[in-house]
Amino acid sequence: MLPVLDSPPHPGEDAPLYEKRRAVFPKAVDGLYRRIKWGWMGVTLAIYYGTPWLRWDRGPYAPDQAVLVDLAHRRFYMFGIEIWPHEFYFVAGLLIMAGIGLFIVTSAVGRAWCGYSCPQTVWTDLFQHVDRLIDGDRNAQLRLQRSGWTMEKIGKRTLKWSIYLFVSFWTGGAWILYFADAPSLVRDFWSGQAAPVAYATVATLTATTFVLGGVLREQVCIYMCPWPRIQTAMLDENSLTVTYKDWRGEPRGSVKQHTGGDCVDCNQCVAVCPTGIDIREGPQVGCITCALCIDACDAVMAQVGRAPRLIDYVTLQGAEAEKAGAARHQPLKSILRPRVLVYFGVWCAIGAGLLFALGTRRHIDISADRDRNPPYMVLSDGAVRNAYTVKLRNMESRPRAMEIALLGLDRGVMWSDDMPRGQAARALRRTVAADQAASVRLYVTAPAGTPAQDFRLTVRALDAEGGSDTHKVRFDGPGDE
Amino acid sequence: MADANNVPASAGGKRIDEATGTSTVGHEWDGIEELDTPMPRWWLWTFYLTIVFAIGYMVVYPAVPLLDRATAGLWGWTSRGELARETKAANDGRAGLLRQIAATPIEQLPGKPELMQAAVAGGRAAFRVNCVQCHGAGAAGVAGLYPNLADDDWLWGGNLVEIERTITHGIRQPGDDQTRTSLMPSFGRDGMLTAAQIDDVVSHVRTLSGKEQPSAASARGAQTFADNCAACHGPAGQGGRPFGAPNLADQIWLYGGSRETIAASIHSAHAGVMPAWGQRLDPVTIKMLAAYVHSLGGGEEFDAAGPR
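^ inputs. structure came back:
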């Protein structure tokens, strides 16, 4: 059983009702995982800040922003894909893929999402670098924290919080660019002409970024986020976790008197931890597996001339084996195992299904709503008329000429409210604007005595690309009277 | 339990959990115990913030109920005021379109599809408030009482101009000197025709729309019809719109097309009425109502040469 610690020991009965936050001042560290984190931080931030500026040519009738959530016009653009509201299942599919993607990552490499990609981690990391840039490394930060409000402290705090505010504002500012044309929104924003909701959103996200990244930091992971709890349930004995090899490290002691364990109790693993935990207490909710303690410990082990990876990415099973004397566990092995492959298979199947649906979806569509009040109308000459509200959907980003026709209802003809009955025919032509749905009012008439029956309305595109769709509707009549 | 951290039962069963060093709350359910982990301090701040927010909310918004009202709040916000503001904004937004509709003669509306669409939409809304009580939500009328507005049979004319005039001045409305008016005699009740004559006229009228084959009775009725009815309903029974005389040769019967109902109509005439909406609604609303009624499927094109 895993001993799970979510906070360091408290003094029992005397524990206060509320716990003051123990400030965390993580020490700078260098090493393999720190460099991976640097690189990945660059990638994730670049994606977040840069994506709205990517352009994608869709012709004259659609926006040219590569990724755009156009709430006003109810369209979602993602590079070559355009999603209409009725196709929201694509977004649902993407969300399911994202969920299963997290399952894959968790079962293969543990809490890698928490340690590397979670926005809370990335922005906290960024803010902690700002701390080190302004206040100096851990010890300087501790000194400054304890000192009174000297001019130096006031100056540094003002500067640091200004940078926090700038980063937070930029974060909120980038968010709104996903919902409107980025260049024109930036212009409107600074000239005071953007929608109030844009300013409110930026203000809200600036505040949340500042508070969550600048103030609350690891407390979000430990107290607020449900994901660590869910992940704890998803980890198994083959999931990679950052592990202190207690069988090798204990009993810990100083460098000079080698007491048998490799741990020299230098506390560097604690000093570099962004959530302020001691990994040597075992796996715990507070560990986001950022692996910075591995970098810190490896550097110390190299200095004192002992084998590296006293703290390491190990699976629980690998740890048992290693404890029993096996060679160092190979992390890659834990990735290629049935559970991960099944998740991956499901993930691929959903992805392939979505791609197939995307490739075969219609770009032209007809639907009809029959008037129910009155259900039918007898005209002066005894003919029976039914009325329909027909929607023609053109999902191409150019205007298209279309023909609506009757299929069935052999003696029926139709006309629309913008033409006289004298022009009634079996087929009508309409041009539907680019990327729009057009509404057409149809009056379908059949001679007296036509029985109630089903028939079909069809639509056909008249351009070279073609395409068609049909919709079954009811024709109602007085019946035998 | 032989746990060294066990405390005496007098302490309420509380003990220090070995793995975490945290005190338990002293309850146990089937071996499951709850740790007495302190709340984080930020949580407390959040709680204080909600209190501050609540106080601020009560000060600026209506909050404390009094006997006949509530405290007004510093911002003076009310849900009614909000509704009035939104309604005004919606009306202001429509004002330009309404002005254009008002300035456009109704027969020119179809040439301006944007105005026509707006007029039909506005007319649909006004129809639901003012007209559905008699003509029905689908404008199909009520058989024997109120005419169907969605078919192509019109008593007083079916182009935009005539519909607008009918709505404005109403039908048989005293107090409006342009109201649509006419009076069909009650031929039976007033003793102008005998029951047998009426019976013959019924036979004749029903041959006009093919409901009956010509017969000796219809031949007799034809003469009576020519003498008494043709002045308004026309020699072939095709109706006369200046008098609101219905077309008797088509398939649409407001008061019924059976022998009994036709005989009843001749014996005791109907004289339907409709309010003169010009006395109640503004001209733009009436124009929009006319556009809506015209759009229901039976509207006729306006002919500048005059009604037929």
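Confidence is low (pLDDT under 50) at residues 1-13 of chain A. Chain A touches chain B through 40 residues (CB under 8 Å).
thumbs up if we can close this ticket
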